[in-house]
Amino acid sequence: MIEVIGLQKIYNGVAVLNIPSMVIPQGESFGLVGNNGAGKTTFFRLILDLIEASLGEVKINGEKIARRDDWKAFVGSFLDESFLIDFLTPEEFFSFTAKVYGRSEGDLAAFYETMREFFNDEILGGKKLIRDFSKGNQKKVGIAAALIGDPHILVLDEPFTALDPSSQIRLKRMLNELQASKNMTMLISSHDLSHVTEVCKRIVVLNKGVAVKDIFTDQDTLKELEEYFAV
Amino acid sequence: MIKQLLRQEWQKALRAPGYYKNLVVSIFLGIFLLYFSAIFLLLGLVLPKILGEVLPSHSPIEVFYGLMLYICIAGLSMRFLMQQLNTLNLPPYQILPIKRSSLVNYLLLKPLFNPVNYMTLLFVIPFSVRLVVSGDISEWQAAALIVAFVFIIWFDSLSASLLKRKFGASSWGILIVVASLAAIASLEYLNVFSFFDISRQLFGFLLSQPYGLLVLLLPVIGVFVLNKQFFAQNYYPEKFNRKVSEKVSSSGDFSFMSRFGQIGELIALELKLILRHKRTKSTLYSSIIFLAYGLLLYPNKTYQDNLSFLFFVAMFVTGTLMVTNGQWIISWDGCHFDCLMTKKIDTRTYIHANYTLLIASNIISFVLTTPYFLFGKQIVFYHIAAFLYNMGVNVIVYLLMAFLNTKRLELSQGSAMNFQGMSYKNFFVVLLVIVFPMVFIAVFSIFKLSEVAVIILGALGLFGLIFHKPLLGICESVFLQRKYALCDGFRKKE
User: Fold this and answer.
1) How far does B283 lie from chain A, in Å, by closest CA?
2) What is the ipTM of this complex?
3) How many Å from the N-terminal Cα to the C-terminal Cα in chain B?
4) Superfamily in which the A2-229 domain is placed by CATH
5) pLDDT tens track for A2-48
6) Which CB contacts under 8 angstroms, 24+ apart, belong to B180-184?
7) Nearest chain B Cα distance for residue A138, angstroms
8) Contact criterion met (CB < 8 Å) for A100 and B265
9) I need a surface site. Which of A126, B48, B53, B420 has the fewest CB within 10 A?
């Protein structure tokens, strides 16, 4: 469970994020939408303790996360390329991550098996370094690495952009399966309204750092969102 | 068009996020440059006298002609090793309707506008003025000499960039340069083949002829044409990057490190980082040269009584790897810092891994420098004290200072004369690490107690080692205070 209490991030006197209170229970798939500069990435970075909150705090399972290490054991995340160690091959990166989470070689082999469809034979087996991969394949590596430690909470920023259409469909399927089988909490931001409504049961719309909509998805949600963003 | 490009390059420099912090570095460099300019000017003024004394059989100007070929070769190798390639981020311009030849001309000619390239003129001009005053050469000859040097500078800088673009700044290139310099020097020394005589006759003849300068201009034009041809064949960036993308990971299987748990994993990661990036790798190679630094100084009688200086050398030599690579610790993780901060790696483990890496590099350098023990008991004493001091005190100083440097290290750049990722804080490290022990010993030596001072420094180091756990605890809390500043700084690309 993620609790957000009076969270504010202020840059140069302007509040770029202001969330008085929000609770994301375990197992919820939480979609974050909003135009550029709405504060989506800032919110995720605050949850991952990569920036300091100006006011308020984030708690995971009742524990504060700021400047702590414990939460890292069960949170998997991929926001951008700085979450990749790009001078490694994908295998080296996965094996590093697996060891960091205390997983064995056997666990890793089983993990590769679950990722086979998503990787589509484009990731493993080569000797190419991650920095030489295309953006889309880098994204696959990053998302997979976020899943190695069997996280209870998964945070993904724009996971669908740069992926090819088939991979987008595979990712959606994989996320839905993970949610159903492991009761994983998912925080996903996206500009693609139809993708995010297909994966997430709850959608929050951010505008200039404020949550202007907080709705549970049903068959009308996509239409409602499209109307909201129409200009 | 070229004016526009120059302007945008200027804007790029001004608008880089690190510019204002870099200002301090630039000021330091500026002082450095002024110092060298002053030395060059002075050298030019006294050069006629020196040359007359070294080779009395020839007149100073003849000796100088003899040296010109050497200056040309030395300039070329210096530029090959140090000069940054003038790169323009081509793709955004390639799609604009700009003539291809303007872009290429810009890339080629920009270094020729860099005043630093013309430093040699600082001693050539006073030298020729001095010779004109003393009546050794005519004004015409002096003017020809200066123009000839401008041509040499153009030739050097154009051919250096051609060679660099062709062969890349690989370590082989450096080896070839050093080997060919050694070959030329030994041929001269063994009187097999004298470049000196050839140069003396060649330049002596050319610079006394009215059209001699035009002949000198020919090689410059030649290299320029070769450069243009190179670009005609390799205009597309994919051709430049070919070497990079074909490279596969072969270097480094450090799986044996995993038996040391997470710390071992992190150290294996840093070792791969060092071996897979140009900048860190070439720094590592250059530290081999630094290891030999003591050979220059220990046999020298003038330094043997200067104990604080001796201790400095001992510290430098026994800590070579830390001095060269340790200054980049943490900031070389800048490009994947978010990864390290969100994966299940305890802050304590991360700090400990970096500490262990510094300690290990000190042990390696110390072992490699044990041959210096042959210089006598005093050196053994100094080396052990310096080693302890490095291990106990300087390692912690390096760690703490690394937390202050919020600029990420761009690893793919070359290393020689590269100040990217440096800030004034790096100068503080130097001050703390070098100046403090030197002053400490100097103060004690006033009372003839410098040996005691060295023992105290060694003991300090020993204390640092014994109490490394609480010291690392302090490092950890400082790191946690600095964490957000580091994350924020590392996200900014330069």
Assistant:
1) 18
2) 0.90
3) 25
4) P-loop containing nucleotide triphosphate hydrolases (3.40.50.300)
5) 999 999 999 999 999 999 999 999 999 999 999 998 999 999 999 99
6) B181/B73, B181/B74, B181/B77, B184/B73
7) 13
8) yes
9) B53
